[in-house]
């Protein structure tokens, strides 16, 4: 096991699920939290009210090099996830807070804060690529406006608080987003990256896109996005260090092996999330990936991950 700390939360292991994978139902929650090698639980990104999301097929996993998803925020609604968090558990529980407007985000955040729950964190998802305008974090100005509205309403967060960000492709974007995070002050961590938007693949047996919603366009995940995830972690880490900021970074995108986790460590991640591989292999993947990581840490003579 490779324990780590995010904000004030102690994770028994460095590796856990990415928001949106194996985290929608109570059975999935119990299954992940009962696995020793899964260091925390993040919920499916939620809305105030339950949603059934997009029509099926909305996932494409048959190509080993990548995945495409367009779930459309299918979730059980905030109040059900509050019940999950209240049930006995010993792992940090992250609420992935989605929503369609700042008003909805503020109401969800206030309700979570008023819940008097221990051992929780919030990963505010500002980057959903599959619904409406895709989220405020695609523009530094929109992100700044949104966070100003949120923190004016809720004040200083009561628990470990982070942002799920989209992939950025230019250093100028990384610099602009770093400035926003520095300005708002209350961000303990960022999770980089959400899926890469605007991907499509075709089924050559019926000449149609592989998924149905949004004319076949969805978020790209899996091996194909590992180098983009690594570059986002690495570039933010450099910016944060340059600015003397203590904001931590959680790596997400393309983790399939222990070597991939080690690469995120080299880039500067404080923890790593697994999405596509968890979909493909199920919760057994955490132990396998952890064993592979242990072998690499021993070979490299590294005995701490922090
Ligand atoms: C969905 C996809 C995302 O990448 C995300 O961040 C939130 C929601 C979805 O389609 O449900």
Summarize the structure in words.
It contains 9 helices and 16 strands. Strand 7, helix 3 and strand 8 (120-125) form a beta-alpha-beta unit. Helix 5 (171-184) packs across helix 6. It has 306 residues and is α/β, with parallel strands linked by helices. The strands form 4 sheets. Strands 3-16-15-10-9-8-7-4 form an 8-stranded parallel β-sheet. It has a 4-stranded antiparallel β-sheet with strand order 5-6-14-11, with no helix packed on it. A two-stranded antiparallel ribbon has the order 1-2. 3,4-dihydroxybenzoic acid is lined by residues 20, 45, 53, 70-73, 98, 125, 127-130, 194-195, 219.
Keywords:
single chain; 306 residues; alpha/beta; 8-stranded parallel beta sheet; 4-stranded antiparallel beta sheet; 35% helix; binds 3,4-dihydroxybenzoic acid
Give a brief description.
This protein is α/β, with parallel strands linked by helices. Helix content is 35%, strand content 19%.
* Number of E strands: 16
Spatial strand order of the main sheet? 3-16-15-10-9-8-7-4
Largest sheet: 8 strands, parallel
Cα end-to-end separation: 13 Å
Label the structural class. Answer: alpha/beta
Task: List the quaternary state of the chains.
Answer: single chain
Supply Rg: 18 Å
Q: What letter string, H or E per element, gives the SSE order?
A: EEEHEEEHEHEHEHEEEEEHEHEHH
Number of helices: 9
**Mean model confidence by pLDDT:** 97
Note poorly predicted spans. none
Q: Which strand-content bin applies to the residues?
A: 15-25%
Helix content: 25-40%
What general form does the structure show?
globular
What small molecules does the structure contain?
A: 3,4-dihydroxybenzoic acid
